[in-house]
Structure prediction request, 213 residues.
Amino acid sequence: MNWFALLVVAKAPVPGFAKTRLCPPATPEQAAGIAAASLLDTLDAVLATPGAVPVVAFTGELAAAANRAELTEALGRTTVLPQRGNTFGERLANAHADTAAHFPGLPVLQIGMDTPQVTPALLVATAARLDEREAVLGPADDGGWWALGLRDPLKARALTEVPMSTPDTGALTRKALGLTVDIGTRLSDVDTMADAVAVASRTHGRFATAVLA
Prediction:
């Protein structure tokens, strides 16, 4: 794998709108701070990944976000594209298509902002699987997925037919793609406070500080 687009799908960590499943025990402000820390750690890894062209499909009011100054600086080092679509599947498909339009010919590896434990080495290794397969899926412990890599990003239109945030989202995504899909490293994403504590205990950085402080 040489160059590839590394796409982060993210929303502004605004209190009352971000990581609401952490509340309680977290307050809306604390949950937004944890979400901001997760996104910032993710962007650190993305920006340090060799061969990656960093892209962020973003939604929400950055001006109202926690850690907005630091987020503004980090996002300024990426190509930021607005999310489009009514459903999450539509927004994901459009994010892949828009990334392909900006960077034609590049494969796309898409991740979210819920796996702050990602590292540049893991991202490179996951993208490299596209050398041998049409697609790669990084499974999540909850049955979904944390990463989707596509040699042809327009194939992401299949996501519009996949129910998201269900225990079988990963299996349904693999079936809907209709491609030769390699399975990458399994990770736990952050949905609940128990998830956050488990991930924070295995990593360092802003996220661990925000969760364990």
Observations:
- The two ends are 39 Å apart (CA to CA).
- Helices lie at 28-47, 68-75, 88-102, 120-128, 169-177, 193-200, 206-212.
- Residues 36 and 97 are 26 Å apart (CA to CA).
